[in-house]
Write a structure and sequence with these properties.
single chain; 5-stranded parallel sheet; 4-stranded parallel sheet; 11 strands
């Protein structure tokens, strides 16, 4: 695994750095005396090719690249939020929950962030169904095979207490109801309040409704304001991570910050994602075959035959490590930029990471920022380690996802909620066109290429905007799938102008 300067960068003393700084002026003075100006320029050119930081690129391209308007500081600027603030307080008509003797049990499915959004939706569903919510069971059968319980990942007591004014939540189903007949109900995806009003008829026959899947069970739009704000209270206040996860996440952020600003890169170049999407660009034939076999053997992945080339051209593939390097460098980030990679095991390991490292040598993972003993308790628990990455990503100066998956959407939404912190969402389809032109020799990396990339992304920085609705021309329930996720952008329901009567 590539670690950049690795663990020693965070723990070494400053003595060697000070010594190097003392030596540098003498070396440069001797160099200038001996060398001619022409030789000096040649050496600088060589150093640039070896990825030695040279911030003069940003100054020389000023005015050509929207990311360089005010020098390097612009690269880290928080987008203007127009005095917007979180607003999650209930309206005046909102009432306290009743002590209902009917219960909803839930089995959350998917990875960490798929479960998180599903749990928050089930809080809202319990409210609409006038039911008591039993602490959800987490997915232990998916790809990650994580045996973590709810309390291993989340602060269970805080979750119950924070939502006591909204929904009654209990840790277990009452003993007398464990053996009673239960209504097993697969709720329809992206359903509105009227759907759950019809579901409420089940209470005439049952006291317990069991929900086998929790993801995407609520519509993104057209729900009562109080329900939308309840979803935000559940996500951003109630569903806090457990104390051990919060503490290690905070430590990692502090250690990274001690070395300056950093980018959190959600590099979705893991085996499961590449297999699921059918993306094989840049892989060997053996790697492509391995991914195809995995896709064929995973029963719940419905699409088996995928044209990798079409996927990539359509912008449906994660950016490769090399493409991420080209992208960030084109935006103007210097090679000295500190990058934290929020991801599991990168497919192909060092071979693929080396391509990113050639652009940005200072790559770090949680394993290279934390001590081994600090991570030992989280070993073999993918959801817990993903929670650590989530914390580091939300708190980063800039967040960049290489693919728009569940974590990318959740982190972006959280960062919007906290003040529209900079999130750069790559235009993968547009970038692939540029990358292919450079491969064909029609374009070269440089000022012009950089200007094309930056212009393409000037409106993809996480600036305030209302949530997008369905794509035009899509009809029926299929249009719901094309809507922007509520948790990707909770504006306008949970983000208001300062001074709003329902500020959080």
């Amino acid at each position: 695994m590539v670690s950049g300067r690795g663990r020693t960068a965070f723990r070494s003393s400053s003595s060697r750095v000070a010594l190097a700084l003392k030596k540098a002026p003498a070396f440069l003075l001797l160099f200038i005396v001996i060398s001619s100006s022409v030789a000096f320029l040649l050496v600088v050119s060589v150093l640039q090719k070896q990825n030695v930081p040279d911030l003069r690129d940003a100054r020389s391209n000023q005015g050509k690249n929207v990311f360089h308007e005010d020098g390097e500081e612009w690269l880290w600027r928080v987008p203007l939020s127009r005095k917007l603030r979180p607003c999650t307080k209930p309206t005046r008509s909102y009432t306290a929950p009743e002590d209902w003797d009917r219960y909803i049990t839930v089995r959350s499915n998917g990875g960490l962030n798929q479960m998180r959004t599903g749990i928050c939706d089930m809080v809202a569903v319990a409210r609409m169904l006038n039911a008591t919510l039993v602490i959800p069971q987490l997915d232990r059968k998916s790809f990650w095979q994580d045996s973590s319980s709810f309390s291993d990942i989340f602060d269970e007591e805080h979750f119950i207490a924070t939502l006591k004014g909204d929904v009654r939540i209990v840790k277990e189903l009452p003993k007398e109801l464990e053996s009673v007949p239960k209504a097993r109900k697969h709720f329809t995806s992206w359903s509105a309040k009227s759907y759950y009003e019809d579901i409420a008829q089940l209470w005439k026959t049952y006291k317990v409704i069991h929900v086998p899947k929790s993801d995407s069970r609520l519509s993104n739009n057209d729900l009562p304001l109080d329900i939308q704000r309840l979803r935000c209270r559940a996500m951003y206040y109630a569903l806090r991570f457990s104390r051990p996860i919060e503490e290690i996440g905070k430590k990692l952020v502090e250690r990274l910050r001690s070395h300056g600003k950093y980018i959190a890169l959600h590099l979705r170049y893991e085996k499961d994602m590449l297999s699921f999407t059918g993306c094989t660009y840049g892989l060997t034939d053996n790697e492509a075959k391995e991914l195809a076999i995995m896709r064929q053997n995973t029963n719940h992945w419905k699409t088996k035959q995928i044209n990798s080339t079409e996927q990539r051209i359509g912008g449906n593939c994660p950016l490769t490590p090399k493409e991420v390097g080209v992208f960030l460098r084109a935006l103007g980030y210097p090679s000295s930029t500190l990058i934290y990679i929020a991801a599991g095991e990168i497919y192909g390991g060092d071979r693929h990471l080396a391509e990113l490292k050639s652009y940005f040598p200072n790559l770090y993972f949680k394993e290279t920022v934390a001590m081994p003993e600090e991570l030992k308790v989280f070993a073999s628990h993918a959801s817990q380690t993903a929670a650590i990455d989530y914390i580091v990503s939300v708190e980063s100066d800039v967040f960049v996802p290489s693919y728009s998956g569940n974590m990318a959407r959740a982190v972006e939404g959280h960062r919007r909620f906290l003040g529209h912190r900079m999130t750069i969402s790559p235009d993968r389809k547009g970038l692939v066109e540029l990358f292919d032109k450079t491969e064909a020799g029609e374009l070269k990396e440089g000022p012009f290429f950089s200007s094309l990339v930056s212009q393409m992304h000037k409106s993809r920085l996480g600036t305030p905007r209302e949530r997008k609705g369905p794509l035009p021309g899509v009809k029926g329930r299929a249009r719901l799938r094309t809507e922007e996720s509520f948790y990707e952008n909770p504006f306008p329901e949970c983000i208001c102008k300062a001074g709003h009567t329902h500020m959080a």
